[in-house]
Each structure stands twice: as structure tokens, then as C-alpha cells.
UniProtKB/TrEMBL annotation:
Family to which the UniProt record says this protein belongs: Belongs to the peptidase S51 family.
UniProt keyword Ribonucleoprotein present: no
Classification via Gene3D superfamilies: 3.40.50.880
Name listed for the protein in its UniProt record: Type 1 glutamine amidotransferase-like domain-containing protein
Organism phylogeny: Bacteria, Bacillati, Cyanobacteriota, Cyanophyceae, Oscillatoriophycideae
Taxonomy, superkingdom: Bacteria
InterPro entries: Class_I_gatase-like, Peptidase_S51
Keywords recorded for this protein, A-Z: Hydrolase, Protease, Serine protease
Pfam families, per database record: Peptidase_S51
Length: 239
């Protein structure tokens, strides 16, 4: 599918990228390749981790190796008072994992959700893993209470439906997602194994890629007699 610089793109990763696969850059390279420039401006948002210094260092260590211009946005120590202008000048926004509930609350309080939506509508590529994947959907499975307790969480709604990251990485994710959809707590949606990227263009799932040869995505839908789970085979980027 041809993609223009004005198309609205989101790459939602169930897990993977520089923080989970430091020796496997396939997903990060795929995202960089979507930008319509040789040295894209890539801004890391570590909000869900409480702007962890260690996480930020990992980002720079990984992305300084790529042909790009990395930066980060900490809400605890913002680089500028003009957050809207800072966001709108980026080619790629990369959101890290952590506490999705805190991420959504902080972004809304700072108005960052609206700035991100405007950037997305103007062609900035949004991406992320875990919390940085879940946040773009209407809702999904989140462990925000801690202690491995999973609950449905309302998110930003840039993408329709629900989402479950870490589908194969955490044993309780799949049954929890099925139960929430069966009970009507979540709408139908997409699950992604670690290492899988769901590439949405203008709100439609256009491509599925993976950094792991056996990882998969799934369409999960409520049926009269329960839940139907349909495997979706990704394109393995290592081929």
C-alpha cells in the first residue's frame, strides 16, 4: 500500500524494540524506514516509566547508532514550554512502556494528547510498545493496578477497538483479554505477541511485521457462544 507523508500512521508493538530486544533492531529499523526523510527526528516519550533516566539512556544508546536525530520529552523536566511546537516538529514519536493509566492522565493534564493527535493528523508517525502500544486504542488490557492484576483501561481512542500487548509474553494476558471481551468490558480488538508490530494507516490495519520468526498477532472478537480468536501471520523482518 503506497503511503504518503500526510497519511496517519501508528505502529503498535506488543513488545520488542530497543528496550526489550537490544540486539534485535528489526522493529526500530522498520519504523525509521517509514519516515519520509533520510534523518528523521525521533522523539522518545518515557512518560509511562515516570521518565526513567535509565530508559532514556537506553533510547539514546540505541538510536544514536541509526541515521536519525533522537530527542526525548520529559514532563518532569520539559525541554521547552512550547510542547505543541516541539511535538509538531517531530517525524516519529516513540512511546515507551510502563504504567498506561499514569501516561494517559499526565498527557491529558498537559494537553499532550491533543498535540499528539494533531501531529498524527499531519503525518507524524506514532509508535510504541506495551503502554506505548495500548495508549493509541480506545481501550485495552492493562496491569496498571500492579501485582500482575489486569483490568480494562480506557485510552486515547486514536484507533478504534481494543488491544492487548504482551500476548505471549505474560501467561495471564490471553485469558484476561478473552474474558473482558466475552463480558463486554472491551470491544473487539487486536492482540500482539512480543516482537510484533501492528501498522495502522489512516485507522486501518495495513500491515503486520515481526522481529521474531514465530510471533503472531490475533483478531479477537466476541461471539454468541464466547470469543473467536483468529491468528494473523506477520511478515518476519529478518528474512
Amino acid at each position: 500500500m503506497p503511503v504518503s507523508s500526510k497519511d496517519k500512521q501508528i505502529v503498535a508493538m506488543g513488545g520488542g524494540g530497543f528496550s526489550m530486544e537490544p540486539d534485535n533492531p528489526l522493529l526500530d529499523q522498520y519504523i525509521l524506514g517509514l519516515a519520509n526523510t533520510e534523518r528523521p527526528k525521533v522523539c522518545f516519550l518515557p512518560t509511562a516509566s515516570g521518565d526513567s533516566d535509565r530508559y532514556i539512556v537506553k533510547f539514546y544508546s540505541a538510536f544514536f547508532k541509526f541515521p536519525c536525530q533522537p530527542s526525548h520529552l520529559s514532563l518532569f523536566n520539559p525541554p521547552t514550554l512550547d510542547l505543541r511546537g516541539f511535538i509538531l516538529e517531530q517525524d516519529i514519536i516513540y512511546v515507551g512502556g510502563g504504567n498506561t493509566k499514569n501516561l494517559v492522565a499526565l498527557w491529558r493534564d498537559w494537553g499532550l494528547d491533543e498535540f499528539l493527535k494533531q501531529a498524527w493528523q499531519q503525518g507524524t508517525i506514532l509508535c510504541g510498545l506495551s503502554a506505548g502500544s495500548l495508549c493509541w486504542f480506545e481501550a485495552g488490557v492493562s496491569d496498571y493496578p500492579g501485582n500482575n492484576v489486569l483490568k480494562p483501561l480506557t485510552c486515547l481512542g486514536f484507533l478504534q477497538g481494543s488491544h492487548c500487548p504482551h500476548y505471549d509474553g505474560e501467561a495471564n494476558r490471553r485469558p484476561a483479554y478473552h474474558q473482558m471481551i466475552a463480558e463486554g468490558l472491551l470491544e473487539d480488538g487486536y492482540a500482539a505477541d512480543d516482537g510484533v508490530g501492528l501498522h495502522f494507516i489512516n485507522g486501518t490495519l495495513a500491515k503486520i511485521v515481526s522481529s521474531r520468526p514465530t510471533a503472531k498477532a490475533y483478531r479477537v472478537q466476541r461471539q454468541n457462544d464466547g470469543v473467536q480468536e483468529t491468528p494473523l501471520e506477520p511478515i518476519y523482518l529478518g528474512r
